[in-house]
Design a protein that fits this description.
The protein is mainly β. Helices cover about 5% and strands about 35% of the residues.
């Protein structure tokens, strides 16, 4: 079962920091399951119209919070990625 951030906004303890470090359009780097880092952009999922969701573990995804990202290139690819595998992209470095 998927829940988006608006579903839990009121249930988050005020002392807890809400995990959402990135907003729609943020440039990020994503760690793949092979340990490589790829540039991507946090983007709305056209199916759910969300860019951040909590997965409860009742489907094919493991429990946890996920960002929806789009990878650039000739062929557009997109994926839901666990928040811990997403970091900010330092554009000044490149």
């Amino acid at each position: 079962m998927k829940r988006d951030a608006s579903d839990v906004k009121n249930s988050v303890d005020e002392n807890e920091e809400l995990f959402s470090n990135f907003v729609n359009g943020s440039m990020v780097k994503v760690q793949t399951r092979y340990g490589q880092w790829w540039p991507a952009m946090v983007d709305y999922d056209p199916d759910t119209e969300e860019f951040l969701m909590e997965e409860t573990g009742e489907s094919t995804y493991a429990a946890g919070w996920y960002y929806h990202v789009s990878y650039g290139g000739i062929k557009v690819a997109r994926n839901w990625v666990k928040c811990e595998n997403v970091e900010g992209l330092d554009l000044h470095r490149y």
